[in-house]
Specification:
Layout lengths: L4 E4 L6 E4 L3 E3 L18 E3 L3 E4 L3 E10 L8 E9 L1 H9 L6 H4 L3 E5 L13 E5 L8 E4 L5 H8 L3 H14 L6 E2 L1
Parallel strand pairs: 3-7
Antiparallel strand pairs: 1-2, 3-11, 4-5, 5-6, 6-7, 7-8, 8-9, 9-10
Length: 179
């Protein structure tokens, strides 16, 4: 496989027009555990932010993984929990130009369970704020967890295809979507 163009999936046997280079989770893992009969005012979810019971605060960001021979990284669009203080500081500066200069990296816990890896929930992260309109960069603690290793060392297009095939195989069960 020499490019990001289409491929025949070994899982479903179908041709897919292009190799997905990013996947996203529509909400933090814990959002899916909420009783849907509960009042909406207790829980808020936007495309970038989530608050559950005014006690749990989440921000959406990107784990970027370098891909050998490619200019663009492979991206897991994930959710990370923040302390209330850091969440409120982020909200205060959300639309402010230069916010990336005003917010130091913030500690958070990965709050997305990614397929294709041993459990990723609660991996330690640092959230790096970027310019307005660009999702925060999520840096994993440099452990030996396979996701952290891939973020540090990069992956091949063959690995990207493997991820796509595994997600295709578990698509009905997964909370992760192609973005």
């Amino acid at each position: 496989m020499n490019d990001k163009k289409g491929f025949v999936c070994s899982t479903c046997g179908e041709y897919h027009d292009e190799l997905p280079m990013s996947y996203r989770s529509p909400a933090p893992y814990y959002w899916f555990l909420i009783n849907t009969d509960e009042p909406e005012k207790r829980h808020k979810l936007t495309s970038d932010l989530c608050v559950i019971d005014n006690k749990h605060f989440f921000i959406r960001g990107c784990i970027e993984i370098p891909v050998e021979g490619q200019k663009q990284p492979f991206i897991w669009d994930v959710w990370v929990s923040l302390s209330q203080e850091n969440f409120e500081r982020s909200i205060k500066l959300w639309n402010e130009k230069g916010r990336e200069e005003k917010l130091e990296p913030m500690f958070g816990w990965l709050s997305t369970s990614l397929p294709n890896y041993p459990e990723t929930l609660n991996l330690k992260t640092m959230v790096h704020t970027r310019q307005v309109g660009i999702s925060p960069y999520i840096e994993l603690e440099p452990t030996e967890h396979p996701l952290a290793v891939e973020q540090r060392e990069g992956i091949t297009l063959a690995r990207v295809k493997e991820i796509a095939e595994e997600i295709c195989n578990s698509n009905s069960e997964s909370e992760t979507e192609n973005s």
